[in-house]
Amino acid sequence: MTDSSTSTTYAAREHARAQEAASTALDRPWVPASAFPGVPGELADEHMVWAETVRGGGYTHKVLAPGTVVELTDLDGDACAQIALAWAGRPWERLCVADTVKVQWSAYLGEGGLLLSDQGRALASLALDESGRHDTFCGAATAAQNRERYGDGSPWSTTPAARELLKLAAAKHALTARDLPPVVSLFKGVKADEEGRLHWTGGAGAGKRVRLRAEAPLLLLLANTPHPLDPRDEYTATSLRVLAWKDRPTAPGDPLWTSTPEIRRALSNTAEFLGAAV
Known about the structure:
It is a single chain. The protein is α+β, with helices and mostly antiparallel strands. The protein has one domain. It contains 5 helices and 14 strands. The protein has helices at residues 9-22, 97-103, 143-150, 162-171, 261-277, and strands spanning 48-54, 58-64, 69-74, 81-87, 90-94, 114-116, 122-129, 134-135, 184-186, 189-192, 198-202, 208-214, 218-224, 240-245. Strand 10 (189-192) and strand 11 form a beta hairpin. The longest helix is centred in the last third of the chain and has 17 residues, at 261-277.
């Protein structure tokens, strides 16, 4: 029997403690978040609420208060953050990609845009976009797709599918696959040509950041896996850094509020609902 055996209670305890000692930012959230290396100096310790690095093929999830800013950084240039959103505590109200595209008259996400629910409310806004490479067309890869491409798509394999990982994240909040909406992908882009054919445009390079602001109580589910249209034969996904801190939702005096009639209406719908719920 080796020292790493978990066949006894004592050995299992030693193994668990060894795993904790060996863990890094690549495989666990930092608690407290303010202890994460590289936290921006202008953020006071009490403002940080989340700090984690999600490896390629990994997933994470978090419930966020309104106003929380989530900064995602593509550390090495090959992250692909596939995100699903829902109103925390109201999982039936969730991200509607079709309405996000239709209401804002654009299929291409960018800074100053919103992620909308099917109730016409803003779940989140894009407060910063250094990438410009995102996708609202293709959704999350399934186990069957990954099995065909890589030989396996199960969540415990070396080539997990995004949808399988998002199902695990949803289960942490008592949700099932039926509760998962279509996702948007950040840091890997797709363009449609005049005939409606989709073309993968890849990423924008290492170090690019995207900031999402929670405009409502938000459940965020995230899988960092290859985009469904990634043409490379190898399963390619590199680390994604996640930092989040307390702030405030977009308010009537902010420039975004009146940037377009559609955005004003969606933010007003959210604010009105939150005010009525107090």
